[in-house]
Amino acid sequence: MSTNLTTKSDVLSKDEEIGYKVSGDDTKRYGVNVISGEDHKTKKESVEEQDNYIKPKNEEEGYALRAVTKYLKVQRSWISTRNKIENSRSCEGKGVYVYEIPSKFNRDLLVDCIDMVPWTNMCKFFKNDGFGEAIENLGQGWFRTHQYALEPILHSRVLKHPCTKLFYVPFYGGFDVLRWHFKNVSNDVKDRLGTEVLKWLGSKESWKRNAGKDHVFVLGKISWDFRRNKHSWGSSFLDLQDMQSPTRLLIERHPWEVNDIAIPHPTYFHPKTDYDITSWQEKMTSKPRRNLISFAGGARPGDPNSIRSTLIDQCTLFSDQCRFLNCSDGSCDKPENVIKLFQDSEFCLQPPGDSPTRKSVFDSLISGCIPVIFDPYTAYYQYAWHLPEDHKRYSVYINQVDVKEKRVNVVEKLMTKTPRQREYMRSYIVHHLLPGLVYGDSNAKFDRFRDAFDITFDNLIEKINKLV
């Protein structure tokens, strides 16, 4: 599903909600003044940077784009200052309470794994606390993790966390959506379980006390799957009134929903110790890169807006510089094929697919392969807590409109990047970003690093402390 620009009228209520215009209520609403002196200084630069990504066709589109930037700024204001490892391990001032909700809201949903989707048995992906089956030939900590496995993965980690403060609701809403996706059932059936879990919560004093503001849901699919509109798929869970106050952690957020927080797609790598991370970092920095560019994906001939066919044509035309792995014939079903391709490549092309974000972006980053982004909604307007605001440090941006209209040859453009530039970017990715993009083993013990779970958890506490 593509992300179309929203009009001014569509975002107006959200604009008022977060105080997009100068307002005295910012601190009260979000624990931070989102309009600061620094904000005014950088406003011009932000707009210019933004215009490099998408050229708004009219005033309403420009307004919508500015709103996206503002929502991200609010989310970054919640980033915890607890960046020292010793502080992040302490329970002082933070924690999580896990509801013991009826199993029909989580574990029971995994029982139907055999026929959850028509083309594969999902049961194999639910082994090892949701990590899936081990991939022995990739080494320690590698698993066949499904792209929608975020819910059981974070549930297992939270259960083993020693601290208690905010409220985590272990509702597997993503699997609730997935189990009905390929079945002919009514919208009432699709919405039933989500409505029931909110009814269950509504009877709890802990929910009533702050109207759910200190509650967190982890939903392992994209936001649009919980905002059923004109399409028949998905549920309307995130459009329910009771879901407007809680924080929602998703693999892809709604750009105009400030309580939608995007966190990394689960990769195949789930390290358990510092050594697992450092040994992989050393391997990725020293690994010879035989391909300048690679693309693992399939064409989308039925989608007139897709640039994939153009990228495939350009890649195959420069076969000495670019390697194409065709996912349409099943070549990407084995994680080993994808990871080994990315390990061998300097740049990994990451065009949008069914939606703007891609698990493949994170697979490429942990493999030391520089992602080439064609849509800012793929990464730049998503992961405020895990990816830096300076996108040039870890990625290359090429406007998908330029590719579609044949104004740029992607291979030729990437060939202009010097070895020194590539090495600098890869070093930053591997040493600074990689540890915070992986979800460690359920029993992980890190002394030197904070993984994606730690970063998410600390920032959630910061958010809740400021708002409640």
UniProtKB/TrEMBL annotation:
Boundaries of every Exostosin GT47 domain copy: 91-413
Record's subcellular location: Golgi apparatus membrane
GO CC annotation, single: Golgi membrane
Keywords from the named record: Glycosyltransferase, Golgi apparatus, Signal-anchor, Transferase, Transmembrane
Protein name (database record): Exostosin GT47 domain-containing protein
A Pfam family this chain is assigned to: Exostosin_GT47
Family: Belongs to the glycosyltransferase 47 family.
Keyword flag Transmembrane: yes
